[in-house]
Amino acid sequence: MKILVLNAGSSSLKYQLIDTDNGTVIAKGLCERIGLDNPKLVYGAAGKDKIEKILDMKDHTAAIQYVLDILSDKEVGVVSSMSEIDAVGHRIVHGGEKFNKSVLITEEVLKDIEEISDLAPLHNPANLMGVRACQAIMPATPMVAVFDTAFHQTMPPKAFLYGLPYEAYEKLMVRRYGFHGTSHYYVSERASELLGENGKDAKIITCHLGNGSSITAVAGGKSVDTSMGLTPLEGVVMGTRSGDMDPAIVTYLMEKLDLDIKGINEYLNKKSGVAGVSGVSSDFRDLSKAAAECNERAKIALDMFAYRVKKYVGAYAAAMGGVDAIVFTAGVGENDDAVRAAVLEGLEYMGVEADFELNANCPRGKEVEISKSSSKVKVFVIPTDEEMVIARQTAELV
Ligand code: AMP
Fold first, then answer.
1. How many angstroms is it from 228 CA to the middle of ligand 1?
2. Residue 124: per-residue pLDDT
């Protein structure tokens, strides 16, 4: 089946056309600055030159139309007509408690997603815009919603509840939901396959470390705890998000900096994290460069990041009563060997024997085991593939 995978943000749209019969990406790209000035379409297809075009995209409908046009273009396209696309898989960030798995999109489903939008005001409305735009252009094509939160719906109450009056959960849906579920699902599945015979029951800690980062404890293929919470702000310190902190800091900062709700949200989501601590950048490549040039705050930011990840690894090993494998994935987890080394150093007491030389020379884009053969706990670098999961689940449902 040919599945178009869409990930719509407020002013962006990432897309991939995937052939699920042989697991190949036929074409992929993105639309940037939708509704702003100089909107750009980027398109790449196997065996063809990459194309970048400034196009007039006033909204997501226009962007999706351009994507479909280029996919079916006579010269650079990869399908003869839109009707060759069997279905569309949409990434939806928040599925609340309503969605514990992917679903075929109906009007009722869209209404439910809209109702959950209060929990993800930055993401769900943008995702929905993508679905609506697509429906307007391809009304006869089946569509599937794949939720970032769904994989974590197996967490038990002791892991998902906060220590708040129970009514906050019952009436206001305040609980841990967790995110990056599609990625944690994919890499934990791969790790359990790589572990072989006993992989199915394994206890695995997956570290999705990117611009946003989350750590998940997976036991027997199920998420039992995860570091992100009601929103993606909780957990390890991230590119621009604060991660865990004393909740009293919120009101203290609002008072001292005269911030309103929008202001504090922006402060914690956009101005904090390793970017805020270092004053350099949210990008780990910039941070490593600055640290190598003796920028103290960049060094501290990198130390903080690895330290917080390590604390979660320890916590989840304790929570699961042991660990069989640790997985690193996403932009930082797959590419930054120094971060991985800093997380793994000193974990010998829990049976982790990392091969630091192999880690430092780990080939990019490949699944690699970076623990020694004698290591009780296996350590893997596994490139994530959220789009492939979305495509497969979409194909299954239609
Ligand atoms: P993601 O959110 O998974 O797309 O990850 C994006 C982040 O990965 C960037 O902001 C960088 O901090 C980080 N990253 C990407 N490539 C590298 C690299 N080669 N070395 C270190 N960090 C990287």
1. 19
2. 92
